[in-house]
Design goal:
Number of domains: 2
Keywords: Coiled coil, Developmental protein, Disulfide bond, Glycoprotein, Secreted, Signal
Radius of gyration: 32 Å
Shape: elongated
Largest sheet: 6 strands, mixed
CATH class of the largest domain: Mainly Beta
Subcellular location: Secreted
Number of helices: 3
Family: Belongs to the OLFML3 family.
Organism: Macaca nemestrina
CATH topology of the largest domain: Neuraminidase
Number of strands: 21
CATH architecture of the largest domain: 6 Propeller
Protein name: Olfactomedin like 3
Helix content: 10-25%
Distance between the termini: 81 Å
Low-confidence stretches: 1-6, 83-101, 209-216
Mean pLDDT: 85
Strand content: 25-35%
Structural class: alpha+beta
Order of helices and strands: HHEEEEEHEEEEEEEEEEEEEEEE
């Protein structure tokens, strides 16, 4: 460029060509020398910066390895010092006064399948993404023939997101890939369930506005056909004075669950405000077939799920710390509290707003402070010792 300017000046000058050409050449040489000097000064600085970056990377890898080792040691210590089973010897599970409603109460359950497994440990955790608010639900249909992912964000909403497959849900602009299904009534809490092509959820019955006595209201179960987008059945849940079953999840009053045996509901009432109740539901009619008063405390409970007829309750602290299964209740009586494993969950972000078990995949779909997580479970026979 400098030489081009020099040539232009030479053509325009008319006289003193040699002097001007010498000046241009001198400027070009001076600029080239300055560029070489700058390059020579920068090269050592770049080499130092590269060495410092490598040193920082090595130090970060070392710290990460130490953290992983410490967490493994903590996991080992927690395993060697298990919590006591949540059995209260001063109260009996059976024989107590039952709440008003349908179905047999506190009778041994006759399994309809040959499922006889229990949790051995939480084998792994995979964080998929962050979608929505701190409370919500995401799941698959355990009876469905597709890989659709259902996402229900919030505790009082009426619109569900449906993704064709898990891969579409994990994309950065996931919402664009989703279809939306709007239900005619807003759901309550995070206790919804997708099962057999239907969305089951709880709503406030009509004519029962909120207010000071809202906690004593009953709830209505809705069975919503996801393909036809119509309500096919509804039933008032046969329990009065419902209160949140989980002490750490105040917005949920009925938590629906599915396992190899069918449809279940976890709830609590004012009649026994210290413990959880469990009900077996008919997925066709929403009738309550059986009910149980469990020994599992409400205090510090954050979520629960059912596997092979056994209720597993997950506990945490406030503020959130390390979640753990600390109470189990087998409706068939096969798994005793002494044989039940009480595993910890891997460390994560906050507290579980919902947990959904998928019997086909043997894994949990968890909503944790807006993060969607998959836990893979390791199973063993109920009769095996821990």
């Amino acid at each position: 460029v400098t030489q081009w300017h020099c040539s232009q000046r030479t053509r325009a000058g008319g006289h003193g060509v040699g002097e001007r050409l010498a000046q241009c050449q001198d400027q070009s040489s001076r600029h080239a020398a300055e560029l070489r000097d700058f390059k020579n000064k920068m090269l050592p600085l770049l080499e130092v910066a590269e060495k410092e970056r490598e040193a920082l990377r090595t130090e970060a890898d070392t710290i990460s390895g130490r953290v992983d080792r410490l967490e493994r040691e903590v996991d080992y210590l927690e395993t060697q010092n298990p919590a006591l089973p949540c059995v209260e010897f001063d109260e009996k599970v059976t024989g107590g006064p039952g709440t008003k409603g349908k179905g047999r109460r506190n009778e041994k359950y006759d399994m309809v399948t040959d499922c006889g497994y229990t949790i051995s440990q939480v084998r792994s955790m995979k964080i998929l993404k962050r979608f929505g608010g701190p409370a919500g639900l995401w799941t698959k249909d355990p009876l469905g023939q597709t890989e659709k992912i259902y996402v229900l964000d919030g505790t009082q909403n009426d619109t569900a997101f449906v993704f064709p497959r898990l891969r579409d849900f994990t994309l950065a602009m996931a919402a664009r890939k989703a279809s939306r299904v709007r239900v005619p009534f807003p759901w309550v809490g995070t206790g919804q369930l997708v099962y057999g092509g239907f969305l089951y959820f709880a709503r406030r019955p009509p004519g029962r506005p909120g207010g000071g006595g809202e906690l004593e209201n009953t709830l209505q179960l809705i069975k919503f056909h996801l393909a036809n987008r119509t309500v096919v059945d509804s039933s008032v849940f046969p329990a009065e004075g419902l209160i949140p079953p989980y002490g750490l999840t105040a917005d949920t009053y009925i938590d629906l669950a599915a396992d190899e045996e069918g449809l279940w509901a976890v709830y609590a009432t004012r009649e026994d405000d210290r413990h959880l109740c469990l009900a077996k539901l008919d997925p066709q009619t929403l009738d309550t077939e059986q009910q149980w008063d469990t020994p599992c405390p409400r205090e510090n409970a954050e979520a629960a799920f059912v596997i092979c007829g056994t209720l597993y309750v997950v506990y945490n602290t406030r503020p959130a710390s390390r979640a753990r299964i600390q109470c189990s209740f087998d409706v068939s009586g096969t798994l005793t509290p002494e044989r039940a494993a009480l595993p910890y969950f891997p460390r994560r972000y906050g507290a579980h707003a919902s947990l959904r078990y998928n019997p086909r995949e043997r894994q949990l779909y968890a909503w944790d402070d807006g993060y969607q997580i998959v836990y893979k479970l390791e199973m063993r026979k109920k009769e095996e010792e821990v």
